[in-house]
Every structure is written in structure tokens, then in C-alpha cells.
Amino acid sequence: VILSHHMLYGLKEGQEKMSKSDPDSAVFMEDTVEDVERKIQRAYCPTSVKVEVMEDDGGEMASNENTDAGKESMHLTADNLKNPILDYVKHIVLSPPGATFACATAASPDGKTYDNYAAVEEDFLNGDITP
To answer: Which positions ≥6 away from 131 have C-beta within 8 Å?
Structure first.
């Protein structure tokens, strides 16, 4: 079986894509249920956009991180949050027609069912869904 999808973020902070060389950076088809649960529970899941501090480098402003200019080209849409869990929900869980996603929320502790990504993202960013 071959599953093609957009380039998913790695599950660790700062990973623009999953890596086969780092087994904890991705969920694989052959992972056990326990592996998937562990990886998702430990995944990087920012709730707001990380602001990069610029440092003065001899008259030039430079990012405080080494940036690979080619990394951003792997993603077709702008995404300043870079949250791998939301990426999975959008591109894996809710991608099939008619798919739904259910989770506990602050307003619905017993669970709320979503049928579109925009509503999931809005509730997450508003703090109704917590990591």
C-alpha cells in the first residue's frame, strides 16, 4: 500500500518534515498502538506562533537559528504555527470525505466531534482544545 500526502511536520520541535532516521519523529504504518500513543503524547504541540528573536550580527540582522532556506518550500501553504499534531488532524484524520475528529474540549468535556479542520484549529487556538 502506498499512501501519498503532503509533507508532514516531524513530531519534534523544529522538524520541517518527518525523518526515517529518527523513529520518534513520525508515525509509521508498522508502529504498534503503544508506539503511536507514545509518539503523539510526546509530540511538539505549540499553542501560539513562536516569535524568532533577531540578533545584530555586525550591522546585519540574523535569525538566532540556523535556517535552511529550502525547508519552507516543502510546504504549499503558509503555516506560522508549525504544529505537527494539527498537521496530522488536517492532512490525515480529516482528509477523507466525511471524516470526523472527536476530542474532549473545555466546553464539552465528554467530547466534541468536528467535521472540518477550520473549527478544530479555531478551538485549539482559543484554548478550548488543549495539547
So the answer is: 45, 47, 85
Q: How far is 78 from 76, CA to CA, in rounded Å?
A: 7
114 has which bridge partners?
A: 101
pLDDT digits (tens, 9 = 90+) for 94-114: 999 999 999 999 999 999 999
Q: Which letter, b or e, does each residue of 91-107 get, where b requires 16 or more Cβ atoms within 10 Å of its Cβ?
A: eeebeeeeeebebebee
Q: Is 118 helix (H, G, I), strand (E, B) or coil?
A: helix
**Of 10, 6, 82, nearest in space to 46 by CA:** 82
Q: What is the mean pLDDT of the chain?
A: 81
Confidence of residue 61 (pLDDT cuts 50, 70, 90): very low
CA-based nearest residue to 41, from 17, 19, 86, 11: 11
Range list of H helices, 3-131: 33-42, 84-88, 117-125
Record the pTM.
0.73
Q: Which of 48, 41, 39, 46 is nearest to 18 (CA)?
A: 39
